[in-house]
Design a protein that fits this description.
By secondary structure, this protein is an all-alpha fold. It contains 14 helices and no strands. The protein has helices spanning 5-11, 19-30, 32-46, 50-59, 61-64, 66-83, 88-101, 108-129, 136-152, 162-176, 181-196, 203-212, 216-222, 229-246.
Length: 285
């Protein structure tokens, strides 16, 4: 089937040597929407850790400019995937990321945990809601890609084994996902941002739907009230129906990474450099 043209290409590549190309095909051609949504939820997930939410609250950026912070993170990560972390634009994007992080005393374990969500949350999302699950090649490519990015960010002790890093993530969540007022506030700012993308009449429904998609550990850590179970069931069903529709669509012909819509930098990347991102922001990514 033509829909599986990219999958055949991915299957012919090596997940270690060719991890950048595999990531570019998966995230930019086969799953641009799913990667975007799963990474939104991955970042949301990290705010269940009080040391992370506390730092973000102290910067004040989530209260003042949540959309800019979201767009900076999304576009910088897209630059790395589209152009490669050692390309001129990739190195420029990493300089911005490292400059932003360097302003704060962030523990290596928190950095390591955030990095792990970029690998494993999309894998889990696509297993549940993708028009096909990620293959082992794609999973390993994501692991090697973000491991290389993490090394260039100065993150120490990144596990060299795929399963070991996933176990670290799971253990970290069991230990560090505890309720804090900063979790609740940063979580609410983020929830309000998600809702702002929809007409005002739909926002209460969107808010309940997003919370319904969170696992119980996250709901408790945020201090949110879980909606009725049927709300989550309807949301998950809608995502699976979408997957069935997407599975029958033609193969995407144009790369959708840095050219995905964002509200802070209209027309990006035309007329922009990665160094233009985050320039007026005082927060870590």
């Amino acid at each position: 089937m033509p829909r599986f043209t990219n999958l055949r290409r991915i299957s012919s590549l090596d997940p270690v040597a060719d991890h950048e190309e595999i990531m570019r095909i998966s995230a930019g051609f086969d799953f641009p929407w799913d990667y975007q949504k799963s990474l939104e939820m991955a970042l949301f997930r990290t705010y269940c850790v009080p040391t992370i939410s506390g730092l973000l609250e102290r910067t004040g950026e989530f209260e003042r400019r949540p959309q800019k912070r979201y767009d900076d993170t999304a576009v910088l990560m897209a630059e790395l995937v589209e152009h490669g972390y050692d390309s001129p634009r990739g190195r420029e994007a990493l300089r911005v990321v490292n400059r932003q992080h360097g302003r704060y005393d962030i523990s290596n374990d928190d950095m390591l945990y955030v990095l792990s969500t970029f690998i494993y949350d999309p894998i889990e999302w696509l297993c549940l809601y993708g028009w096909r699950p990620l293959t082992r090649n794609e999973q390993l490519a994501a692991f090697h890609f973000y491991r290389a990015v993490g090394t260039r960010m100065g993150i120490r002790s990144i596990p060299a084994d795929f399963d070991e890093f996933r176990a670290f993530k799971q253990d970290y969540e069991r230990t560090h996902f505890v309720f804090a007022e900063s979790n609740r506030r940063i979580g609410q700012y983020t929830l309000d941002l998600f809702c702002s993308w929809y007409p005002s009449i739909a926002r209460p429904v969107v808010s309940r739907a997003v919370v319904a998609m969170l696992d119980p550990l996250m709901v408790r850590a945020f201090g949110f009230t879980a909606p009725p179970a049927w709300v989550g069931a309807v949301g998950r069903l809608a995502l699976r129906v979408r997957a069935l529709v997407v599975r029958r669509l033609p193969v995407r012909r144009s790369l959708k990474l840095t050219r995905a819509r964002n509200r802070t930098y209209p027309g990006y990347p035309d007329g922009y450099r990665p160094s233009d991102l985050g320039a007026s922001s005082s927060t870590a990514l």
